[in-house]
Write a structure and sequence with these properties.
Order of helices and strands of chain A: HHHHHHHHHHHHHEHEEHHEHEEHHHHHHH
Organism (chains A, B): Pontixanthobacter rizhaonensis
Function (chains A, B): Acts as a magnesium transporter.
InterPro entries (chains A, B): CBS_dom, CBS_dom_sf, Mg_transptr_MgtE_intracell_dom, MgtE_N_sf, MgtE_transporter, SLC41_membr_dom, SLC41_membr_dom_sf
Radius of gyration of chain A: 30 Å
Distance between the termini of chain A: 84 Å
Number of helices of chain A: 24
Strand order of the largest sheet of chain A: 1-2-3
Oligomer: homodimer
Subcellular location (chains A, B): Cell membrane; Membrane
CATH topology of the largest domain in chain A: Tetracycline Repressor, domain 2
Structural class of chain A: mainly alpha
CATH class of the largest domain in chain A: Mainly Alpha
Number of domains of chain A: 3
Membrane topology (chains A, B): Multi-pass membrane protein
Chain lengths: 471, 471
């Protein structure tokens, strides 16, 4: 087709890179990474540079993450002048931290200077205070003040994450006046998506999307174009709430205001998308007790965050064992009980995890609130009854066939009881943690598992004794 | 402070609403919802209207989700002229679907007409074909064609999700010419964030952020302002990859091109954030076997998606039981085995889930690739050794104290074996599913649980027999 050459040449640079370096998922190909690492080991810096030079900064960041820790240093040295601020900003937090700790304060300061202030904050906020001070001392006053004021806000709040570079103009300004103002002031932020209109005490009174401005005649006053009802981000707001705000109101950027309502900065969606994806995915990791769950997390930290939950789980497992121990005599009489009891506990645990995962997600998205808790509880109860009866019929019939009909009836009833218990616990435990202002994702699974394990063993073994199958 | 009144009046409308209707998390207060539902039951449409009228469309959508199914109909009737396209677009898919199925085709068509085309597609894509046809027949040709062409693309691809309204201009145009063009063409999309520069056959050759345009003198040609190297979204790309693209390259919007490289639409980040959060959170739900895991999902569907995994889990639990049965004689001799064996299985399962959650997340984020699988496997092995030894010491000591030292040694060794097995399985199972082009989040947990259960029982009971503690 006539159209092909221009496509290859100008239109699809990404695809052009694709073929050699990126697969269809925009991930660096294993062969490509292998080549780079090979040249690194061979000490061929020039070769490495030529290989890496065509990459997008985000891909260079990925390359660092795909290399071993000891290789990252060499890579950084080999491609120093490709280590743009975009690369640093895109680096995984752990990888960035270890790399920065390896560098002298002056070097980090040099990097921090190139970065937008909000990225510079990210760069040094995880370093220990001594290093922070050393680096800040190297910075120009203006940058230092901006970064220090950001560090003054608690981690993971809008104050930490916001960019201080905003375009704020007075109400009486006309569209033409604004355009001229923007053309004259070259030192303004490069990318911005809305202009904030402020009053004489710097309180936001409205906002103009750039697209509206471009489409309005020069003589019109901004006050006639701007949207007065805008979503404002309190400077102390937690990043999770900021992310939900951006999602809920489909924001591209938003003004950040301090306690007195003054415009102090803005948050843009390109910074928020990372938070949205972090916050949305961390629940899976927290529920599984994997802590941060980042594959770049140092082993010691990963061990620390995971072993805590394994120990907690050990505690809950012991409770199950105590219940089993109480029925030791019955098990000695009928070993079939020992063979079957894990099934009741395991299915119950699975059912509880299902409901818990749904509830935790709904709570995180502000979908499960005081207003509809009862309805959701009733919903999960009905789902649990359906699941319980289905599984009970299956396992009951199998058990009746292999062992005795009575034992089949016992396990069937125990299964229904445990799956319904699991369904209710799966909603109530996270909801209760939420009410107690605890993160439902963190501790719920230990409790839900404890409840379903204990109930599974107790219901099954208890019914076995009561029904007399074990005597 | 003097500043307070203006703040209250203009600057913080959200906060003003907050006090009465929204809590600090921007969630509708239970009391407020209760009032609305009370008036609905009382049939006081006017009262309902007055209560709902001040809400943001996104909050009206939430209100529908917080009401029972039977109340939603009445609410829709009571606030008909508040049912803006924004409200419809913000509605949960299930809630929207059930509401649309309840309405006649003409009514849905009326709503579809007000919507942007991409939202209109969302509105009707889930309805059955007959309903779709009936609704499309009611639409103006232009809208119908746009929607039909979108429906022609597979679900969850860029073609389905993109907006067809883009600002595309020729290369030779000047900044001034563009601004005049935008001012004259009132029927252009209202909100857009970049202007796409195309060649004579409508292939994108560059892109201009609106902020660059606003800051450039009128006489400059776009070809001198535009960025030539832009990220293009192939029209057939899956939404998950689109979301990763937007995150990785921090995009606000991107051009969508067809197979021949022609510009056919654009995706904007405000549509993508929902996908990012969906894709990031669905893993937790899939891993737990909760399917869609939406609290608005009809009970029958929730039952169907969950019971499948409970049945699968029943199968894996039976395998565990078979292993236990093989050691029935040992258990009859030493009931302590029955008391302790669930601990080994349960902790192993927990350890496996931790590693699996980390691996599944890393795979989803394209962080765990062929290039670093071995390193991650080695990493998880070392974490597993640390966890295994820690837990083994605790449970071994306790068992030695309560039962016999030999039994303590047996359970300690079994625990180390099972936690290491869990660590390796937690990486390998998801990686293998990924290689087989299966979603690692879906089936991994069943297999990991099966492996850790079986290994837990086998290692513990087997060692008990071999070591002779059970004879």
């Amino acid at each position: 087709m006539v159209a092909e050459p221009p496509i290859e040449e100008n239109v699809r640079p990404d695809d052009r890179i694709d073929d050699e370096r990126l697969d269809e998922e925009n991930t660096l190909k294993a062969d490509y990474v292998r080549n780079v690492r090979g040249l690194l080991d061979a000490g061929d810096k020039g070769g490495v540079y030529d290989l890496v030079e065509p990459l997008h900064p985000a891909d260079i960041a990925d390359l660092f993450e795909l290399c071993d820790e000891n290789e990252r240093r060499d890579l950084a040295v080999a491609i120093t002048d490709l280590m743009s601020s975009d690369v640093i900003a895109e680096l995984n937090d752990y990888v960035r931290e270890t790399m920065m700790e390896a560098l002298p304060a002056e070097a980090v300061a040099l990097i921090a200077e190139q970065l937008e202030n909000d990225d510079a904050v990210q760069l040094i906020e995880d370093l220990d205070v001594a290093d922070q001070q050393a680096i800040l001392a190297e910075l120009a006053d203006e940058d230092r003040v901006a970064i220090e004021s950001a560090l003054a806000y608690p981690e993971e709040t809008a104050g930490r994450l916001m960019s201080r570079e905003v375009v704020a103009v007075p109400e009486h300004m006309t569209v033409g006046g604004l355009i001229d103002f923007l053309r004259e002031n070259v030192d303004l932020a490069n990318d911005f998506y809305e202009v904030f209109v402020v009053d004489h005490i710097h309180h936001p009174v409205g906002t103009c999307q750039l697209s509206w401005i471009l489409r309005t005649p020069r003589h019109i006053a901004l006050s006639d174009v701007m949207k007065r009802d805008q979503t404002l981000v309190p400077v102390g707001l937690d990043q999770e709430e900021v992310a939900l705000m951006f999602q809920k109101y489909a924001l591209i950027s938003a003004a950040v205001v301090d306690e007195s309502g003054r415009l102090v900065g803005q948050m843009t969606v390109d910074d928020v998308v990372h938070i949205i994806s972090e916050e949305a995915s961390e629940d899976a990791l927290l529920m599984s007790g994997a802590g941060e769950g980042d594959i770049n997390e140092p082993i010691r930290e990963a061990y620390g965050s995971r072993v805590r939950w394994l120990i907690a789980n050990l505690g809950t497992a012991l409770i199950g064992s105590l219940i089993i121990a109480a029925f030791g005599a019955a098990i000695e009489k009928l070993v079939a009980l020992a063979i079957l009891m894990p099934i009741v506990a395991s299915i119950g645990g699975n059912a509880g995890t299902q409901t818990m995962a749904v509830s935790v997600r709904a709570i995180a998205m502000n979908q499960l609130t005081e207003a509809n808790t009862l309805r959701i509880l009733w919903r999960e109860f009905r789902v649990a009854v359906l699941n319980g009866v289905t599984i009970a019929v299956l396992i009951g019939a199998a058990t009746a066939a292999i062992f005795t009909p009575m034992l089949g009836a016992v396990i069937a009833v125990a299964m229904v009881i445990n799956i319904i218990t699991a369904g209710l616990a799966g909603v109530l435990v996270p909801v209760i943690f939420e009410r107690l202002k605890q993160d439902p994702a963190v501790a719920s699974s230990v409790f839900v598992t404890m409840i379903t394990d204990s109930m599974g063993f107790f219901a099954f073994l208890g019914l076995a004794v009561v029904s007399g199958v074990a005597s």
